[in-house]
Amino acid sequence: MITRRLENQLVEALNSSPSVVLIGPRQIGKTTLARQMESVFPTLYVDLENRTDLQKISDIHAFHQENKDKLIILDEVQQTPEIFAQIRGIIDEQRRAGNKNKQFLFLGSASLDLLRQTSESLAGRISLLELHPIDILEYNHAKTGDINTLWLRGGFPESLLAHSDEESLTWRQNFIRTYLERDIPQLGPRIPAETLYRFWTMLANLQGSPLNAAPLSRNLDVSQPTIRRYLDLMVDLMLVRRLSPWSNNLNKRILKSPKLYVCDSGITHALLQIRDFNSLLGHPVQGGSWEGFVIENVCSVLPYHVRPYYYRSQAGAEIDLILEFSPTEKWAIEIKRSSAPVISKGFYIAADDIKATRRYVVYSGQDTFSIGKDTVTISLAGMMEEVMKSLV
């Protein structure tokens, strides 16, 4: 088993807040992580997709009263959003009685729907944590394999730790099918599974491209507003990242469309039928896949106040990833798959445009070295460690 970095943060959050919500896509390991709290606190686990468990909490006040000495874990809580208003009253009652900590742990797979409910009903009473796919630091710490395996298979635990590439691919294909046929229809208006599969596959082919709804609309024979609705759904499910363009009243013409990435590289490769590493190296999506893989790994260590962006001017100046720590602290990151990266003049121009305080090139090698012009070439793991050190 790979130890998740979020485990210690979860214990700290539960010790300081009456309720904690842990979000992340399905099968990412939320339930496994939550069940590990049993070794720290007395807990009671409730699966809200199980009819018997759902019946248990039909009277949540009575259920909590019977189990108030335990941490109550409510899994897939987006299935019963109405429960938050009732839990607010329970938490307030417990606060008046002097109990301020670790009463509820919510697990959910639909970010915006879940966050909307918690923000309205539990404001000031809840902490939020997001569980990302397994990243390179967690993988390296477990000493289980190299970065190419993680890139090919992605960070979903059962895919990454499968006995073979074929077994991993089969798991990811089943994951995609389950999302399309069961999970997504539960969350809103009926969308044909085949249509959404084609849309998801198109996004995988366009990995790292700016959003252009017109060709997607033509290929799927739906309207552009419908394309944006599909995209919103995939973003809400934490399956697609919408990377916003950076702009700060620059007197330059810049690209203003968000760039789109299928979040998990393994899902990208499954959608494109990429079966092994050699096939990946020969596929046109290789560059975009590596770029998305790096971005997801770096974003997995970012706190909520640090915002990721990209930058591209009409003249061709471009930065793959900007980390904005504050209005005066911005890092410019170029992403290259090559072991001997060559940096274009456009990166340096763009870094000057945004007044970047640090400049990095993340590449596939392991060494860290300067290439001049205040720019450092660094490994992905090294880049993530730099981000984490800056936050201490």
Radius of gyration: 22 Å
Largest sheet: 6 strands, mixed
Taking pLDDT < 50 over at least 5 consecutive residues as the criterion, the unreliable ranges are none
Distance between the termini: 27 Å
Outline type: globular
The count of β-strands is: 14
Note the total helix count.
18
| Beta-strand percent range | 15-25%
Number of domains: 2
Given the helix and strand composition, which structural class is it? alpha/beta
Percentage of residues assigned to helices: 40-55%
Strand order of the largest sheet: 9-10-11-12-14-13
**What's the rounded overall pLDDT mean?**
89
Provide a descriptive summary of the structure in words.
The chain is α/β, with parallel strands linked by helices. Helices cover 44% and strands 18% of the residues. The protein has two domains: 6-130, P-loop containing nucleotide triphosphate hydrolases (Rossmann fold, 3-Layer(aba) Sandwich); 136-390, no CATH class. It has a six-stranded mixed beta sheet. A five-stranded parallel beta sheet has the order 2-3-4-1-5, with helices on both faces. Strands 6-8-7 form a three-stranded antiparallel beta sheet. The longest helix has 19 residues, at 165-183. The radius of gyration is 22 Å and the shape is globular.
Provide a brief overview of the structure:
44% of the residues lie in helices and 18% in strands. With 392 residues, it is an alpha/beta fold.
Please write out the topology.
Layout: H1 6-16, E1 19-23, H2 30-35, E2 43-47, H3 51-56, H4 60-66, E3 71-75, H5 83-96, E4 104-108, H6 111-121, E5 126-130, H7 136-142, H8 147-153, H9 157-160, H10 165-183, H11 193-205, E6 209-210, H12 213-220, H13 224-236, E7 240-243, E8 259-262, H14 265-271, H15 277-281, H16 286-299, E9 307-312, E10 318-326, E11 329-335, H17 345-354, E12 358-363, E13 369-370, E14 375-379, H18 380-390
Parallel strand pairs: 1-4, 1-5, 2-3, 3-4, 11-12, 12-14
Antiparallel strand pairs: 6-8, 7-8, 9-10, 10-11, 13-14
Helix pairs in contact: 8-14, 10-11, 10-14, 11-14, 12-13
